[in-house]
Amino acid sequence: MSGTLAAILGGAAGAVALVGIIILLIWYCLSKNRSVSRTSETGSSDPSDPVGRHVEVELSMRETRRFQMEELSLATKNFSDKSLIGVGKFGEVYKGLLHDGMIVAIKKRHGAPSQEFVSEVHYLSAIHHRNLVTLLGYCQENNQQFLIYEHIPNGSVSSHLYGAGIDSREKLEFKSRLTIALGAAKGLAHIHSLSPRLVHKDFKTANVLVDENFIAKVADAGLRNFLGRVNFAGPSSQVTADEIFLAPEVREFGRFSEKSDVYSFGVFLLELVSGREATDMASSDSSQNLVEWVQNIQDSSNVSIIIDQRLGNSFTAEGMGELIQLIVQCVEPSSERRPAMSYVVMELDRILEKEVSLTTIMGEETPNVMLGSQLFRATK
Fold it and tell me: Is the pLDDT of residue 51 over 50?
C-alpha cells in the first residue's frame, strides 16, 4: 500500500514539475516576442526577409545620462563663441569636450524645467542605429535646456555638396553619393519601423552628417517634437531652403507621416544628384526649381541639365537613370503614391550594387548620360 502511495505521489510530483517547465517555456517565448516587437518591425533574423537584411536595428534600454550644467560649461569653455558651431531650430549648437575625452555636440535653448522634455529625451536616446546620430543625454538648469549628442566630425552632406570653401570631389563621386544615400535611407527606415513609429519631420540634406569614414548619420530625428506646434505659411511662390523639403500635405495642412519623410528624402536625393540646393532653378532658362522640374520630367528630354558636372564619368547612364526614377517616385505630390522607406532602401542597395558591378567591369569611362525620353519611358 505504501509503495503504491509513493508511486502515486511521485507521479503527481513529476506531472507538476512538467507543467511548471511548460509554463516557463511559454512565458519565455511570449517575453521574447514582446521584446522583438518593441525594437523594430524590421528586426527579423530570417535571411529571406530583405528589409531585415538592410535595416539593422537596435534599441538600447540603457539609462539616459543627465548632465550637469557645470560639466557642459567646462566642455564648451563657458559656451564661448569659439565653441559655437551652428544655430538650429532647437537653438545654439556648441562643440564640447567632456572630461572623459568624448567630443559632443550640445544644443542649448531657454526653457523651464519640464517632465515632458525629460520623457521625450528618454524615448529618443533609447533609439540606436549605425545611421542615426545618437542622443546621449540632457540637462535642465537655470531655465535652460540642453540636448547632448555624439559629435560627427565631417559635418553635413550639404556642406560637402554646395558649402563654401570645401573641395570634396574625390569623396563625393557617384558611388560615394549612393552609399551616403543608402545609409541615410536605412536611418530613416529604422525610425519608421519602431513601435510606436517615429517620423523625423525635419529631414533635409543639412541633417545628414558624415563621420570620419563618410558613413551617413541622420541627425535631429524627432527633434521637432521638442518645438511644440509649428505653423506653416501654406503654398507660396517663394519657397525657402528648408520649406523645399516639406511635402505638399505638410505645407498645406501640417500633416506629417512616414510618407512626408519619403518626400523629404526624395529632395535630398535630388540635391545629391545635382550638387545644388533644390530651390535653384533647373537651368538658366527655366522657371521651375529642381523639384518642380523633376515632378514634370515627362515633359523634358534633357536630364543632363540637373546632373552635377563634378561627377564627370563616375557613373553609368543606367544607374543615374534608375536613381532619378526613384527620385520621381519619392517627390510624388500624392502621399499615397510614394513608396515606403523600406522600398527606397532596397532600391538604393540594388542600384549601388549594380553600379559597382558595372563600373568594375566596364571601367570608369562608361558613357554617363542618355536622353530623358529613354530614361523615363517606363515611369508612371
Answer: no
